[in-house]
Specification:
With 234 residues, this protein is of the alpha/beta class. The longest helix is centred in the C-terminal third of the chain and has 12 residues. It has one domain: Metallo-beta-lactamase, Chain A (4-Layer Sandwich), CATH 3.60.15.10. The mean pLDDT is 94. 26% of the residues lie in helices and 26% in strands. The two termini are 29 Å apart. The strands form two sheets. Strands 1, 2, 3, 4, 5, 6, 7 and 8 form an eight-stranded mixed beta sheet that branches. A four-stranded mixed beta sheet has the order 9-10-11-12.
Length: 234
């Protein structure tokens, strides 16, 4: 993304210990992409931000009112634009993300490179799965164990009401317009089909009922069956 413009989001509760701020990033050419940050309460009383969005003063204050932000999670090599502003706003927060992003953005200083496991206290609340076989994306998906909520970044889109002609055109081209789907771009991201399939099967081994995507609407119930149907590799 290059100099994206973003609307100012509001923080809403999804479930006990889980909040989200839905925003919109306006890309060159007229593409309007909905995006979402998830805020996670940890067992030690601190917070983690998953895939930060633009931090307006109002959103920053709403997050700060929930507690101390101790961690900022960049869940893939494609989600990093608003990481630095989040770190500047929440001084002292530790940055976690994939090695592919550390190589892509060497000026970002990571405290932990995410591989296959999360450090405590994050691991007490979240399970993490590395989506293998797509090294340029290196997405990590997360299970919020207390509520059975699956957090995904670009693995799945659920944009049921795209805004604008260009957005609809792009989403139709990627197979993600108007319904829960996995983008056709994964055909290009994926370098190891067997590894991708193994990741899909491992994800479906989790018990979850809610889907919280970065792009599109939250699916409050029935998510496991919907995700199983939407995944192109499993």
């Amino acid at each position: 993304m290059t100099n994206p413009q973003s609307s100012s989001p509001a923080l809403v509760g999804l479930a006990p210990g889980l909040w989200a701020a839905a925003s919109e990033v306006r890309m060159p050419g007229g593409l309007r992409l909905p995006t979402r940050m998830t805020v996670i309460a940890l067992g030690d009383g601190t917070l983690a931000l998953h895939s930060p969005v633009a931090m307006s003063p109002e959103l920053s204050a709403a997050v700060a009112a929930l507690g101390q932000v101790a961690y900022v999670i960049a869940p893939s090599a494609l989600h990093h634009v608003f990481v630095r502003p989040a770190l500047e706003r929440f001084v002292g927060a530790k940055l976690l993300g994939p090695e592919a992003l550390a190589r892509k953005r060497p000026r970002l200083r990571f405290d932990t490179l995410l591989e296959t496991h999360l450090p405590a206290p994050l691991s007490d609340t979240l399970d993490m799965l590395a989506v293998a076989g797509a090294p340029t994306v290196e997405e990590k998906v997360f299970l919020h164990k207390p509520t059975g909520s699956l957090l995904v970044t670009d693995l799945l889109f659920n944009i049921t009401a795209p805004r604008g002609f260009v957005t609809k055109l792009v989403l139709r081209g990627t197979g993600t317009c108007g319904h829960l789907a996995q983008s056709r771009l994964w055909r290009f991201y994926g370098k190891d089909r067997a590894a991708l399939s193994a990741s899909g099967r491992a994800l479906l081994g989790w018990r979850f009922d809610r889907l919280v995507p970065c792009h599109g609407e939250v699916l409050e119930t029935g998510a496991h069956a919907a995700v199983e149907q939407a995944l192109r590799f499993k």
